[in-house]
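TEACHING EXERCISE
Course module: macromolecular assemblies
Task: Read the component lines below, then compare them to the predicted structure of the full complex.
Student: A.B.
Group: 4
Components provided:
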Amino acid sequence: MEAVRTNEAGLRRDEWLERMKLFGLGSPAILLILVILVIPVGWLFYVSFIGADGTFSLENYERMLKRKSYARIFQTTFEVSFLTTGLCILIGYPLAYFIAGLPNRIANLCLITVLLPFWTSLLVRTYAWLVLLQKRGLVNEWAISLGLWDEPIKMVHNMTGTLIGMVHIMLPFLILPVYGAMKAIDRDLMKAAANLGASPRRAFWTVFFPLTLPGLFAGSLMVFILCLGFFVTPAVLGGGKVIMVSMKIVSNIELFVNWGAASALGVVLLVSTMVILWIASRFLNLEKMTGGGH
Amino acid sequence: MTSRTNEALPISVRNVTKTYGPVHALNDVSLEVQSGEFLTLLGPSGSGKTTLLMVLAGFTRPDCGSLKFGEREVIRTPPHLRDVGMTFQSYALFPHMTVAGNVGYPLKLRKVPKSEIAARVEAALDTVQLGGFGERRIDQLSGGQRQRVAVARAIVFEPRILLMDEPLSALDKKLRDQMQIELRHLHEKLGMTTVYVTHDQREALTMSDRIAVVNHGRIMQLATPRDLYERPANRFVADFIGESTFLPVTRNGAAILFDGTPLLHDSPPPEAASLLLMIRPERVVLSREGPREGVNNFAATATEVVYQGDSFLLHAALANGAQIVLRGAMRGANVTALPAVGEALTLCLAPEDTVLIDGSEA
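Instructor-supplied answer key:
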């Protein structure tokens, strides 16, 4: 018997309209991404393959392979990013753990303090560190007057200063996802672990820590990728001694007006970031498959 | 779970008090749980039953008191050294481990050899009828299966005491009824001293050797399910366990009067200033042919009749205005015609069902 299909066309049209509305809401963003991201990046790729004589060439990439200074720059970039991420984990994870254990009202207050640095400009914060850490700066003066060390220690215009500044700026990006992962853990799980015979330390490493891994991984990834392209802080606090890819791009354009070389560097940075993201996303999926997180 | 090497342990709770600010979560609680007993802590939410269980498990530190597992004083022992099994209301299964990982966790902590772990995990899973589920992830399991895994994990290391915190509250009714029987059988098989927390009085009656009714941080009555139901110590217990109607009665020398009429009753009334007659709906017998011999007869008028399939519920008003609820079986004459609203009836209460309780609010 033929089923009665009342209002079929109307209902299908409603479905289509609903979808169109959603698309309409998304279209400004899609347009924006197209104009300020896809087209410029495409142009970047194109320029990176144009040589000094204006024809297609691989010279921009060849230069990167041949010159040792480029290898060093990439090495520095990854080194700074790794160290910053590592330090952020060492400082941020315990802090997130501490905040997650506080009563909600106090925890929220603490989170606001964590986010406070976001409300001041990056440049201001970086220069503030310059003032604090320089030879005759507050940190050295206080440390000497307290007898912690005798001579002023060089803390800016080197790796130390760069790392201090970068860690300070990146910390919230790590703390927030880790805190989120910690808050999502059912407190009964820790009780269950204790009840089954796990000492607090054992319970932490076998139950709590594994469950925060997705959050820790997401946070670390964010910090690492942001670090790869970072410019202001290493430029100011590194004092020319810590040269990262972003700074080389700037000097290629400002000093040598070599758009091709700069574009090639940009492309390499972009591609390596995407490779890292791709590898990471496989890990993240793995986490989900093993039931980690929620 | 083929052989049990450990004997069950008795639990002795003495004078345990726990306050949160001005609130007494536990008010000088003492309780002896016998070795191998299935004891239920029953009470409304906020009564202190869960606090007491958490004290037993070591997650709540009381202000004072003593707690002994067998001869061992454990009140200051941290949870991970207490060696008791426990199931949680939320199951608290580790989501990043497989079923076997969860069940094997306590064995791994106890440094049991790997090969033995596998065998004991499988045996524990068999016990809860989840044989072959070891490699499943927790999120692949249904609520009932999770419940079984939680039980398997709690018993796999053969603790001598098992604590269960509302283990069935998240399951639907049919599964709950089935699990009640299964847990009861499991207890009979393993024989460990079990303390079970629930707010469901039917569950408590079904499963327990004894029930401790808890309210306002105190144990109101500790008795077998039958005694609790038949001879509640006070109005709170009578009200909480089962349905009942309370009628005020007066004492006149040796006689107990309701509305001026002496009552026939088998058991002696408690020594209390005010007394109440407790009437269970299913114990009242409906007579449509007038008063009967040897029972207490109440003349009443039907005010509401509710058909409930297997039974019917009758609300009736007595001559002095008091309301009585009666539950009757759907059989015989009732099938063809239930009493009509406004019909004059006689309600009969046998002397053995005429229970007098202490009417003062505890």
